[in-house]
Amino acid sequence: MLARMHILVCGGAGYIGSHMARWLALRGTRVTVLDNLSTGHRAAVQWGELIEADLRDASALDRAFAAHRFDAVMHFCAKSLVAESVADPLAYYESNVGGTLSLLQAMRRHGVERLVFSSTAAVFGHPMTDRIDETHPLQPINPYGATKAMAERLLADAAAAHGLRSVALRYFNAAGASDDASIGESHHPETHLVPNVLRAALGTGPGLQVFGDDWPTPDGTCIRDYVHVDDLAQAHALALDYMDAHPGAHAFNLGNGAGFSVREVIAAAEAASGQAIPFSVQPRRAGDPAVLVAASDLARAALGWTPVHNALAPILESALRWHRAPTF
């Protein structure tokens, strides 16, 4: 099926979007990337045509949809820094909600009826259970999470009113890089633990900061669920098949279902790199939960999703290969 499709990957110059474009292209799918390159990298667009445009530009979207017959859209475009969203919430609503609304309107104008949406565990807010499943209330505690929850509501309303089929995939902590080290994770500024711990190990980044060592966890540091970026890509492809048989708007949580503490990630990175990683302990960050782990049973049962990288070591090793010789 994928080999006969043409998919528009919005945000395909970014971290997860570029891995999605690669994953699809390697399976014979025709890919077109749409990205404004505000945070993405032109060098990451190695598979398919690049349309440099902003989702909020209705005229640019109309030109893109008129020039191509897309079978489905995958939507990765978003501002995604929690602290920045608190400092400038209006910009986040304009980008994340306004951009999604503009895309849905363009899809409706041009008769494209299937969308896979990049959502986040931030829609849940403070976890009420050790493992978060899809029944957990959506109670975001920052504007970033709120914009993603609002975009999910847009998808539900568009399904009810216009028949748009959609799947929202709520990532926990995406990590890793492509197996050939052609693309990897590169943000400016970099706020994610895995790239920061590897850059500290290689001496290419600042000293590592650990935000709190007095959390109610076995070693006092926060616990997170890490899922390989290529496993996320696989879930997006499976979501396309799911929509064929299931109209409406759907949402699934994506994680390994196992949590690793910050100290465990540091130890694994030291083992992978062969380097000691010094770090400093800083005060806790407001809004950080002690434990954030996914229950992905529904995605496994409904989508048939089985993560290939189900341990921390191979995720870190793939990221390390890219960080040793980053291309952007």
Automatic annotation (TrEMBL):
CDD domains: UDP_G4E_1_SDR_e
EC number: 5.1.3.2
InterPro entries with a match to the protein in the record: Epimerase_deHydtase (IPR001509), NAD(P)-bd_dom_sf (IPR036291), UDP_G4E (IPR005886)
Domain of life: Bacteria
Alphabetical keyword list: Carbohydrate metabolism, Isomerase, NAD
UniProt pathway annotation: Carbohydrate metabolism; galactose metabolism
Signal sequence range: none
Catalytic activity: UDP-alpha-D-glucose = UDP-alpha-D-galactose
Cofactors that this protein relies on: NAD(+)
All residue ranges annotated as the NAD-dependent epimerase/dehydratase domain in the record: 7-255
Pfam families documented for this protein: Epimerase
Similarity annotation: Belongs to the NAD(P)-dependent epimerase/dehydratase family.
NCBIfam families noted in UniProt: galE
Subunit structure, interactors included: Homodimer.
Protein's recorded name: UDP-glucose 4-epimerase
Classification lineage: Bacteria, Pseudomonadati, Pseudomonadota, Gammaproteobacteria, Lysobacterales
